[in-house]
Amino acid sequence: MSIRLVEDVSDGTCVLDGLTVTLTPALPRLGHQACWEMKGHLKEPVDLTRVTCNVIMKFGPVKMLERNYGLPDLLESLGARLSGDLRPAAGPWQQTWNLQLPETVPVAEHRILLRARTDSGQNFLALDIALDFSHRFRPFPASGRESSPVLHGSHRR
């Protein structure tokens, strides 16, 4: 899997401004952890425990999933949790999460649209994340003759 692009598509209405995202390793592997670091500037105080996230996952042009999460629940689903000041004041802000990547995913170019809002309904951030699961890994053979449409990480159990 390779991260081709994590794009901050936030506009001037977002509470989190000047966002930078760093992913380590730059080419994370299925079934392994990836460190996701976010740095930016909060225009006003935010209760991170009450931020809601709308997640849309597309495989190519097809929308496969749309779901709303509380930020703590979204992070928990990825094996991470909020840390530090959960209600930071306006000013410089940083969070680092160790995310657990799934072991298997459908073979496709994935696009994740993440839109987050504060508990008062203000835009918090907007990210477009492009993941390519179609070329980096070989599909796990289903029957020895054909390939499965699901990719599996290369770690041993």
Topology:
Blueprint: E1 2-8, E2 16-24, E3 33-42, E4 52-59, E5 62-70, H1 71-77, E6 91-100, E7 104-106, E8 109-117, E9 123-132, E10 150-152
Antiparallel strand pairs: 1-9, 2-3, 3-6, 4-5, 4-8, 7-10, 8-9
Q: Can you describe what's shown?
A:
The protein has 157 residues and is mainly β. The protein has one helix at residues 71-77, and strands at residues 2-8, 16-24, 33-42, 52-59, 62-70, 91-100, 104-106, 109-117, 123-132, 150-152. The strands form 3 sheets. Strands 1-9-8-4-5 form a 5-stranded antiparallel sheet. A 3-stranded antiparallel sheet has the order 2-3-6, with no helix packed on it. The two termini are 19 Å apart. The model is unreliable at 136-157 (pLDDT under 50).
SSE pattern, N- to C-terminal: EEEEEHEEEEE
Tell me the major beta sheet: 5 strands, antiparallel
Q: Which quaternary structure do these chains form?
A: single chain
Percent strand equals: over 45%
Apparent shape: globular
Distance between the termini: 19 Å
Count of separate DSSP helical elements = 1
SSE class: mainly beta
Radius of gyration: 17 Å
Helix-residue proportion? under 10%
Strand order of the largest sheet: 1-9-8-4-5
Give start-end ranges of low-pLDDT stretches.
136-157
